[in-house]
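Collaborator request, handled under Task 6.
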Amino acid sequence: MDINSAPGAEVWITDDGSALVDAICTGLTGKGLIPRRISIDQLESLTVPERLTGLIVMSPLKGTDDRFLKQSFQLVRKLGVTLNKTAQQGGAFLATLSRLNGSFGLADGSVAINDIMSGGLAGLCKTAVLEWPSIHGRHSILPWGWRSLPLLQR
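Structure tokens returned to the collaborator:
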């Protein structure tokens, strides 16, 4: 996914307090974007901005549960109008990140899957971009311990 947004564009990231979120924020800042860490637990109190270039939903470091998946869906839905409007004005993206040890559980079986519920974020991203074709979308499956995001290196 090519993130070629105007300098100063805002990107929201669900914050799980991990070093990976720090690295993502650093990468976005290096591209001239303004990262804003949000707590998905404070979904109801989040004020939707006029323009939002992107949303990155991180599976929590502590693990994903039904509540987190529901809140992720609600967050994407809440930001849908703004992301679509921004997409029409130059581009917007949705990225979701699961912590499935680098595979979707279909590897040779020797890789332990620690957070299988986080795979639900793939379906969320895929469905959102099918319904909102002007928004760029990508789901990435992260190995445990990753401290950078190749998506931002493009």
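The cover message to the collaborator said: "The chain has a mean pLDDT of 82. The chain is about 30% helix and 20% strand. Please let us know whether this matches your experimental observations."
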